[in-house]
């Protein structure tokens, strides 16, 4: 564990792409390849069973040698193959790495790890979405100022804001699920011809895909890196959604705004957010950390997309750059999702504060409605002055402007108050629609 891993390697995704996970994935591919080769008649079943048994117990393998020699080979597969062959003996070594090349095993292992890591990411996104759905439901009609370009605009509701978060989180989950469902196996041999597979390479590729619950392909995707690019895009989009929710929380939790607060649950969360210099401070650390992790994603996505340009049948360098980059991308997006779920679990909206801020911002529309109502009897200039005087009276006496207006007897008070009331349009109906879509996703309906 490193000094910064508590922030940037949080949640299940980090564990899913650890060094141990890398070894488990590589061994899972080699074991599945041996079984697929046995199913297609290329090797004896007994030999495939021996390879599967050896791969099931990595603690019995000389993995230290694999680590020591991985750089010499340019990747860890060649020394791993030798270690497996030594482990099963000369008779059963025929079932090790059948007809494959290093990229077959590495690409497939990388996607297996990505699938496991995204399952952890999805769990945290789902937890965050469920919390947000509860916030949208509870605060469906609570008014707060809408803000555009960081300035107060027209009124909206916290329910609609939360519904927007919910739609983003659910959308990110759907995109990740679509990519994961299409993750393909890699199997082509040295240059993609399957020449070393005894005429059964296509069948073996299909059997390997079935063993690992991946999709099969008509040809290898050695230098056509769409599967990795799709992962990068979906993970980058998820990070963008997480960052948007997190920055909203950070802004709403500002001292001068104070419309939400990160309260947290449990002793650890209660201690979180302190300052080394200012005892009074309580920073929204979970949201801040979610934003920090998410902001690392675009650079990693860019690296993966730039690596798509690969030469001939097998790339020299671009392919290699993907391994640590996708590993880091999965880790940082997983950390961001985990932090966001934590932030939202402890989020406490202050509906009264929101209402007060919205009411203060509503002075303008109400003063305008008052001036408009007085114009027919006083004239434009005098009506403007009367409305301004009412605003001054409200501020001088500490009373709401609505109360000052309500005391007047020279106009239709009810009509003026109605004209100056915050108009949130169809916010409630849209919240209901987002909650219905979320329920359908949760229940697995199309």
From TrEMBL:
Record keywords: Isomerase, Lyase
Any GO BP annotation: 3,4-dihydroxybenzoate catabolic process
One of the record's GO molecular function terms: lyase activity
Domain of life the protein comes from: Bacteria
Domain Fumarate lyase N-terminal, chain residue ranges per copy: 29-299
Pfam families: Lyase_1
Keyword Transferase: no
Record-linked PANTHER family: ADENYLOSUCCINATE LYASE, ADENYLOSUCCINATE LYASE C-TERMINAL DOMAIN-CONTAINING PROTEIN
Family (UniProt): Belongs to the class-II fumarase/aspartase family.
Protein's recorded name: 3-carboxy-cis,cis-muconate cycloisomerase
Source organism per UniProt: Geodermatophilus africanus
């Amino acid at each position: 564990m490193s000094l910064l891993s508590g922030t940037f390697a949080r949640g299940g995704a980090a564990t899913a792409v650890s060094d141990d996970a890398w070894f488990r994935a590589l061994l899972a591919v080699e074991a599945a390849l041996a079984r697929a080769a046995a199913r297609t008649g290329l090797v004896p079943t007994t030999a495939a069973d021996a390879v599967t048994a050896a791969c099931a117990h990595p603690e019995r393998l000389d993995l230290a040698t694999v680590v020591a020699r991985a750089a010499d080979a340019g990747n860890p597969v060649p020394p791993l193959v030798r270690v497996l062959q030594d482990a099963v003996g000369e008779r059963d070594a025929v079932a090790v790495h059948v007809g494959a090349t290093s990229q077959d095993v590495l690409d497939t292992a990388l996607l297996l790890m990505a699938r496991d890591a995204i399952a952890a990411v999805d769990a945290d996104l789902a937890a965050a979405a469920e919390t947000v759905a509860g916030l949208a439901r509870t605060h469906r009609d609570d008014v707060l100022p809408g803000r555009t370009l960081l300035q107060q605009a027209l009124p909206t509701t916290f329910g609609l804001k939360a519904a927007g978060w919910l739609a983003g989180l659910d959308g990110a989950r759907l995109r990740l699920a679509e990519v994961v469902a299409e993750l393909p196996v890699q199997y082509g041999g040295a240059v993609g011809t399957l020449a070393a597979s005894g005429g059964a390479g296509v069948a073996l590729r299909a059997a390997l895909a079935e063993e690992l619950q991946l999709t099969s392909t008509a040809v290898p995707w050695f230098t056509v890196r769409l599967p990795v690019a799709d992962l990068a895009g979906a993970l980058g989009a998820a990070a963008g959604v997480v960052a948007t929710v997190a920055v909203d929380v950070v802004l709403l939790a500002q001292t001068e705004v104070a419309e939400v607060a990160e309260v947290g649950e449990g002793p650890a969360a209660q201690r979180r957010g302190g300052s080394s210099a200012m005892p009074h401070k309580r920073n929204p650390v979970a949201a801040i950390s979610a934003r920090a992790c998410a902001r690392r994603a675009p650079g990693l996505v860019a690296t993966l997309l730039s690596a798509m340009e690969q030469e001939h049948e097998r790339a020299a360098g671009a392919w290699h750059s993907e391994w640590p980059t996708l590993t880091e991308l999965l880790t940082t997006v997983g950390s961001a999702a985990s932090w966001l779920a934590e932030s939202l679990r402890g989020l406490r909206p202050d509906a009264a504060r929101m209402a007060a801020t919205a009411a203060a911002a509503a002075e303008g529309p109400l003063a305008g409605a008052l001036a408009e109502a007085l114009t027919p009897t006083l004239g434009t200039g005098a009506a403007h002055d009367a409305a301004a005087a009412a605003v001054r009276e409200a501020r001088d006496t500490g009373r709401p402007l609505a109360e000052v207006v309500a005391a007047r007897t020279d106009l239709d008070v009810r009509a003026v108050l109605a004209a100056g009331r915050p108009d949130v349009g169809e916010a409630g109906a849209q919240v209901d629609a987002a909650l219905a879509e979320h329920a359908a996703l949760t229940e697995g309906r199309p």
